[in-house]
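Pilot study result, target chain (653 residues):
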Amino acid sequence: MLPIFRLREKSARIFLETKKDSLNEKSIGMKSCLCHRSDRKERAVFNAFRLTPRLPFRLALVAICGYLFIPFTTAQTTLTSDVVERGEDYTVYRRVSAVTEAVGAVTFKTNEFTLLENCLNYFDDGQWKESEDVIETAPGGAVATRGPNKTIFSSDLNSPALFDIQTSDGKRLRGGARAIQLTDVASGKSVTLATVKATALGQLLPPNQIVYPDAFDGLKADVLLVWRHNYFGQDVVIREQPTLPAGMSPDTTRLEIVSEIVEAPQPAIQKQPVQAGKAGQLEDAVVIGFGRLAFVMGKAFPVTNDTAWAVGGLNRSDDSLPVLKQWQTLPDGRMFLVESIAWTDAQAKLKQLPMAAQARATPASKDRMAEARVWPGRPKSLADAKPMQVAQLGYTPNGYVVDFVIIPDSGTPTPLLTGVTYYIKTSYYSGSSVTFQPGCFIKFKNNAYMLLYGPVTFPTSTPKAVFTSRNDNNFGQVIQGVAGETDSNGDPTLHKAAQAIWIYYVSFSTTILNAQIRWAQLGVQYDGGDVTHTLSNSSFEQSQTGVSFNLSAGTLDLNNVTKCIVTTPVTVTGDGVVNGSMTDDCGVVSIARVNDPAQDSASGDANKNSQSECSFVPVDSSKIVAAFFDTHLSEYRLGYERFSGILSPRSTG
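Predicted structure:
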C-alpha cells in the first residue's frame, strides 16, 4: 500500500533519495504532475514511471501551508461495507475498496476493525441482532428484551421486585429500593427518613427510563430507573431537605439508601477500607459480582430542573461524590444493599431543597450497627398489577441523586490481538483477565473508556499496544461504516478517551508495560486501596492528563515513561505515593535533512530542526517514516511505505 503523507503549518520542500539495489522490474517511481488547492487541503497527484532494477528511487514534493495529502492513486471506490461477524460483546466491520493507481492498475484494499462493547448484540431467532435501549409496556409493568439480559419492571415500586434481570446464562437478579435512612456509625443510632408508599406507580419515559414520582412516605423523593444494554441504574432523587435529629453527630452520620435484593447468585465481594473522617475507617464493597452482572461504585450529585441531566455512566461530574456500598445478609437470609454518603458532604447540596417534616426515630441500641437498624419489610406481591402508563411530560426534577450502578460482564477472558484494531464507542468493562498483545490498536470515541477490574497483561516487547483517538488514522485501521456515525476524518482532536485505561479497585498489583497512549483526556486512572502498581516503558502523547492515581494507600512506580504535549503528567489524590516521573520525549531526531545542518544548533537545541524543515526517519531496514514538520515538541507521523533491503537513506547532513 502506498503512503499518504500529511504536512502541517509552513511550506517545505522534501527530497528523498535512497539507493535501491533490490527493486524488481515492477518497481514504480513517481513525479509530480498536478497540484491544486481546495478547502485548506492541497493534493499532489503523481504520474508513475517504471524504473529498471538498480536505478535509484527518487521522490520530490513541494508542500504549501495547511494540510497536504499526497495519495499516490487516482480513485478509490467502495465495493462492500458490511458487518461480517457478531458476538455478544463485539461486532466486526469490514470495508473493501477498489483502488485505481495512476498507471491504471486496480488493487483491492480491505479495512477491518472490531467494535467492543458489553452486551452489544443478542441472539434471537437463530441470529445475532444489535441490542436496542428500549423499554416497552407489558402486562404488570414493562420489559426490556432487546439485549442479551432481559428485564421485567414492576408497575409499582411497592412490590417484592422492582426489577427482575435475567442474564444470558439464565441467572436472575431481583430487587428494588425500600427506604431512606440516617445512621450514626459512631453511636449506632439509626433514623428512618422515608419508606416506600403503599402505592407508588411508575411512568415510562421513552425510550429507556421509568420514573416513580413522589414514591416515599416521610420524605419527598422519586426513583428513576435507567436501562441500557450495557448499564442499569437505580437513582433515588431526594427532593426535600431532611433534618438531622438531636443526638446524631453530623461528623459521623451517613445518609443511606437501602435496597433489598430478593434473589441473586452467590455474590463475589471485593472490599477495601475507606477513611471517612471522624467516622473512622469504613468498609466499602467496591465491586459486588453476580456472575455476568456486577455492582460498581455509584455517585451522588445535585440536579436542577433547568439543567440537563446526563443520567447513567460511571464518570463523575465535578459536583458528584462517590457512594460507598455495604452488603448485608440477615440471619433469615434476606439480603440488602446499603449505599451511603457522609451527612456533611450531602448537606451542602441538600440545604438548597425545601425543608421536610421531622423524621421518625427507630429504636437505638448500644449493640452493633446492624442490630440497631430497623430493616424495612418486604412488600407483598401485587394482586392486580396493571401495565405501566407512558408519561405525558418529561422528567425534570430538582433534587439530590444517590444512584447505584449495575454493569454487565460476560466473564470471558479477552485477548486483544496483534495487528487488530478495536473500537470502543461508549465503554468496555471486564473483570476477567485481559491480554494486550504487541501491536494491537484500541481506538476511542469521545468520552469512551475501558474499565478493568481483573488481571491485565501487556506486551513484554515492542511493538507497543496503542490507545488513541477513533480519528487517529496514523495507527491501525480507519474507523468507518459504523451506523449512526460519520467516518473518521483524520482529526484526532475530535475524539478523546475519558480514560484510555481504568484500573478499577483491584486487590492485586498490576503492570502496564509497552503502552502508547495518545489523544486522551486521561491516559491511565488508578482507583483502589493499598496495592503496588507499575507503569513501565510507556509513552503519553497529546493528552490532557497522563496518570490519575487515586489510592487510599499503595504506590505507583514509573519506569522509563515519557510524555509529549501532556498538560498534566500525574495527579495524586488520597494517600498513595508515586515514585518516579515522566520525561519529555517527542521522539524527533533528524536523520535525513533538507536544510543546512549548521542552522540546527542556532536555537540551542541540537535535536530541533529549523521551523520550515521536513525529515525522514528510517525505522529499520525495511521502513522509512516521513515526515516531521515544525518538530519542536510536536510530532506529525505522515505515513510510511515498506521497502525491502534498504541499506540506508542518503542525507544532506
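One observation from the pilot: The chain has three domains: 6-71+588-642, 130-408, 409-584. A full batch analysis is planned for the follow-on phase.
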